[in-house]
Amino acid sequence: MPGNRGRSVSAWPKMSTLFKAQEKVKVVYNAVGFKEAVPVSKPPGEFWIVSVGRLVPWKGMATLIRVAGNLRSEYPGLRLKILGDGPELKALQKSVQELGLAGIADLRGNVARDQTLGFIAAADLFILNSGYEGLSHTLLEVAHAGRPILASNKGGNPEVVIPGQTGELFPFEDGAAIEKITREVIAGVRQLSRALSGPEREAFFTKFSLPTMVAETRLLLERLCRH
After folding, report:
1. Residues in domain Glycosyl transferase family (predicted)?
2. Intra-chain end-to-end CA distance of the chain, in Å
């Protein structure tokens, strides 16, 4: 098989310097097996910010903890739920203690997928403050659950987070922007997303389905074999 053509899981690596001959790269999205989730139980009066990811510096979890600290006096019901594990865990736990956020910022470690989906379904706001992403399956699952998304404008995030439809974008690690938008969401003066339904919803999520991935991969392989 010729080595001068390739497949990309999102438009971002295709447009980046990872591929010099962009016209020879075909975007074929990885499939996501969407599941309906039952929201985990949430105490009345709480506003949940949920984030999911490996605890590494480029996931920006430390910034989310600082944002929670800055907003806690204004919104006593605010809770930050971080799902994931990684080398930054101890440093993040220390930050939570130093900022007096025990009971407000909750580092839950690794969580099974069904429970993760339950937290996503219960989220009032999902935030992904990531400096690097190919195509985030977590963002797709949040969009599928119809929860508001606030995500960094890095990597493949803009292919999932469409302003006015599935969420809003902000510059990576821009804590001030995260705080501002979160305040507006809590106050009810800003709606980040609207429910996708009917043909619009079907068209959006079909791009990330298994049949679409298989069909487009097959077409790509057939084209490669003809060259």
Report:
1. 41-185
2. 8
